[in-house]
Specification:
43% of the residues lie in helices and 15% in strands. The protein is an alpha+beta fold and 460 residues long. The strands form five sheets. Strands 1, 2, 3, 4, 5, 6, 7, 14 and 15 form a nine-stranded antiparallel β-sheet that branches. Strands 8-9 form a two-stranded antiparallel ribbon. It has a two-stranded parallel ribbon with strand order 10-13. α3 packs antiparallel against α11 (334-348) and α14 (390-408) runs antiparallel to α15 (423-431). The chain starts with 15 loop residues before the first helix and ends with a helix.
Length: 460
């Protein structure tokens, strides 16, 4: 989730048109398109597999301080707490932040190729591993915390999380599990025009459940199988219906920046950031804010920083900011963290691949898309869809992505193109066996029912 810092205040928003222009300003020529990858993982104490609290000599703050000392990262402070790090030498940005339950997140730099993403991730893993090893801390890349209860999971000292924690139980049954016990990998990609955005939005939204199936990696809860292959995906179905979901209106005639702006305006607010602190505005209306009628700040009108904050509090399967965010995949190891951006880059950044993907999803109804989304958490690639299965659709989608990466022809130092980063997803699509199913086989076999083995098997 975003980390807000104080900065120069911009003029108040004077019209709805400015809100629409916020999204329009994301349009850029294909030569400037970049790839942003964000991923999370769970810190844990290697000695006893307990979660890592924020404070203390071997806490998350100590990890952040270790990265500052070793790598020269710049701390972001809220109150008296370090809550994020800026990576000053990362071309295109890059930061490390904390999710509500201590999930350690790399918000990667904007990069031109998946090869560059690989170099970035390897460097990040090396840095965090070095600091973690010195503190006896490991990192677990998995879609849902496999061992700890919600009560055992620590909280991070960020004001927005306190507001969200209080609000979540009012609107859904699993929102707190989403916040504190889930972990994802997200890919951010650009668009060239409104028409290009619409096409990419529709393709990526329709195929998001397919990617959730391919990347299913969260079959355990509190030490036992939970009955799902991607429980992280299931959690989002009971988090907050006002700000989540498959957005059927995206497929309606006339969809564009204006319609998405109206959707975000109707998403209830969480907070307003003022003078270094978060003010609780949960459940209130940004439309009222525009008119100076927000109960939390009567008489005050929002600026563009407030709008950007509010945009970040919508959590649909695909989210638009000034780029599109693909939000459907469980977290995984290094290979998976590269395969997800490779898939979406191949699919959306090559015009022939985008056209083929649009043809693949053409004619799917809102009901069919929702039915797939509802069934995938339990059955993943075995989910029936029309006369096919999600696995068969996945094989075709991965093949389209491979062809797109091939045509991009972006080479690494050894002359290899980006298709090499798809190998794992291709194997899953062909075999029909997800990471979650492999973990369950180990649980019932070699692990002898001991989920704790997942830590030694998967840990960074």
């Amino acid at each position: 989730m975003s980390t807000r810092q104080d900065g120069p205040k911009s003029p108040p928003i004077s019209s709805r048109r400015e809100l629409i222009e916020y999204f329009e300003q994301g349009c850029k020529p294909a030569s400037q398109w970049v790839i942003g990858t964000e991923h999370e993982k769970f810190p844990f104490n290697r000695s006893d597999l307990t979660p890592v609290p924020y404070g203390g000599p071997r806490g998350i703050r100590a990890i952040l301080e270790g990265l500052i000392a070793r790598e020269g990262f710049v701390p972001v402070i809220e109150g008296e707490n370090i809550i994020a790090l800026q990576i000053p030498d990362a071309k295109g940005g890059g930061s490390i932040s904390l999710e509500p339950g201590g999930q350690f997140e790399l918000s990667g730099a904007t990069l031109k190729t998946v090869h560059e993403t690989e170099y970035e991730l390897i460097s990040h893993f090396d840095q965090t591993r070095a600091v973690g090893d010195s503190l006896g801390i490991g990192f677990l890349p998995i879609g849902f915390s496999p061992l700890w209860s919600r009560a055992e999971t620590p909280g991070m000292p960020k004001g927005r999380y306190a507001i969200m924690t209080a609000h979540m139980p009012r609107v859904g049954g699993l929102g707190l599990d989403m916040m504190y016990r889930s972990s994802t990998v997200q890919v951010n990609l650009d668009f060239g025009s409104e028409a290009d955005m619409v096409k990419k939005f529709r393709v990526s939204l329709a195929l998001q459940p397919v990617v959730a199936a391919l990347c299913a990696n969260s079959p355990f809860t509190e030490g036992e199988p939970n009955g799902f292959l991607t429980f992280r995906s299931e959690i989002w179905r009971d988090t907050d219906p006002h700000r989540t979901g498959m957005l059927p209106f995206v497929f309606e005639q006339g969809f564009g920046f204006e319609r998405y702006c109206d959707y975000v305006l109707d998403v209830p607010m969480y907070f307003v950031f003022r003078d270094g602190r978060y003010i609780d505005a949960s459940g209130q209306s940004f439309r009222d804010f525009l008119e100076g009628k927000l109960a939390a700040l009567p008489g005050e009108r929002p600026d563009m920083g407030d709008w950007a904050d509010h945009v970040s509090t919508a959590f649909p399967e695909v989210r638009m900011k000034r780029f599109l965010e693909m939000r459907g995949a469980d977290a995984g190891g290094l290979r998976r963290l590269l395969e997800v951006p490779a898939f979406w880059t191949g699919l959306l950044y090559d015009q022939s691949a985008l056209d083929a993907a649009a043809d693949l999803v053409e004619g799917w109804t809102a009901g069919e898309r929702q039915s797939m989304r509802d069934a995938v958490p339990r059955r993943a690639l075995a989910t029936p869809f029309r006369k096919l299965t999600v696995g068969e659709i996945a094989r075709e989608a991965v093949a389209i992505a491979r062809a797109g990466l091939k045509r991009r022809s972006k080479r690494d130092a050894e002359g290899r193109d980006e298709t090499r980063h798809l190998a794992g997803l291709e194997e899953i699509a062909q075999s029909g066996r997800t990471d979650a199913e492999r973990l369950l086989e180990a649980y019932h076999g070699a692990w002898k029912g001991d989920v704790r083995k997942a830590f030694s098997t998967l840990a960074i």
